[in-house]
Amino acid sequence: MQAYKLNATIDESGHLIIDEPLNVPPGKVEVIILQAIPSLESATETTTESQPEKPRRKSKVKAFEGLFENAPPTPPDFDPDQARWEALKEKHNL
How far apart are CA 91 and CA 10, in angstroms? Predict the structure, then answer.
């Protein structure tokens, strides 16, 4: 399967209009449409001020879904390689 990224518009009648030529072989294609959602900054200003913004950490593993929400944030100077090395030293008594 080949992926192409291109700009297109949808006209008033609902037809997809591709703005640039495509060089693809004839046959069936799958079209995935990603639409930009307008920002709702004015509607969420009051809620954002009262609550500190907490980044959502998602997990592909269902068992871990709620675990990351309550975890403390990672410090900005965190070095994952150093943490791995410290864990290996502790595990193997180095």
Answer: 58
Q: What does the block give as tokens for 49?
A: 């001020």
Q: How many whole angstroms separate alpha carbon 23 and alpha carbon 45?
A: 45
Give the C-alpha distances (Å, rounded to integers) separating 12 from 16, 86, 90. 10, 60, 64
* pTM for this predicted structure: 0.32
Token pair recorded at residue 73: 């944030």
pLDDT at residue 41 in the model:
60
User: What backbone phi and psi angles, to 5 degrees, belong to 39?
Assistant: -70, 140
Cβ–Cβ contacts within 10 Å for residue 10, how many? 11
The helix (H) or strand (E) run that includes residue 39 is none
